[in-house]
Design brief:
InterPro entries: DMSO/NO3_reduct_chaperone, TorD-like_sf, TorD/DmsD_chaperones. This protein has 184 residues and is an all-alpha fold. The protein has a single domain, classed as TorD-like, CATH 1.10.3480. The protein contains eight helices and no strands. The longest helix has 34 residues, at 126-159. The chain starts with a helix and ends with a helix. The relative contact order is 0.13.
């Protein structure tokens, strides 16, 4: 197996993991249940725990709430995040740009764009476009996602007894560590 195919296989695994985490940390509504149909019998319990963790107990699912020291820094970080999204033609529609689900979805999208460029022989400058996507992944992960997501996952683990949310938070921590090594 060539190094290139190993890289593509790894990106395919990464894209699925980012999608899984993004959905798992979004509100457990219809889209959530489509992705996790095995959890349908526990929907009401998941909704109650989501509301308790992220609405009542104030585990903020917004990165700048964990990283910004003041309102000026928060505004600057939000502008930077929006700059990333706009550079790739995206605009968050449902939530703040620094929501963990949005940031995880954005990493999913960057990996998708990179895979598309690498697998499409007909695209002009495909290798350069793939490199731009990889560079954006590294920068976005390091500057916005990694530190905040680790703090959020730690808070979830310490504040819930719910098996699903504990497992997702632990899974996210493990994945973030592997991503940090991969994106060095």
């Amino acid at each position: 197996m060539s190094t290139g195919s190993v890289s593509l296989d790894l990106d395919r695994e990464r894209i699925l993991k980012y999608k899984r985490l993004a959905v798992a940390l979004s509100y457990p509504d219809g889209d959530f249940m489509v992705f996790f149909p095995e959890l349908s019998p526990w929907r009401d319990e998941l909704v109650a725990e989501y509301d308790r963790l992220f609405r009542v107990d104030e585990i903020w699912l917004y990165g700048t709430e964990h990283l910004a020291e003041n309102e000026f820094q928060r505004a600057s970080m939000l502008a930077d995040i929006m700059g990333f999204y706009r550079a790739f033609g995206l605009e968050p529609s449902k939530d703040r740009p620094d929501s963990l689900a949005c940031e995880l979805e954005f990493m999913h999208y960057l990996i998708f764009k990179r895979l598309y460029a690498l697998e499409s022989n007909h695209i002009a400058h495909a290798p350069e476009k793939a490199l731009v996507c990889l560079d954006a992944q590294k920068k976005f992960f390091t500057e916005h996602l990694y530190s905040a997501a680790k703090k959020i996952a730690g808070s979830i683990i310490s504040q819930t007894e719910n098996a699903f949310y504990r497992e997702i938070a632990q899974e996210m921590l493990t994945f973030l560590e592997s991503e940090a090594r991969f994106l060095e």
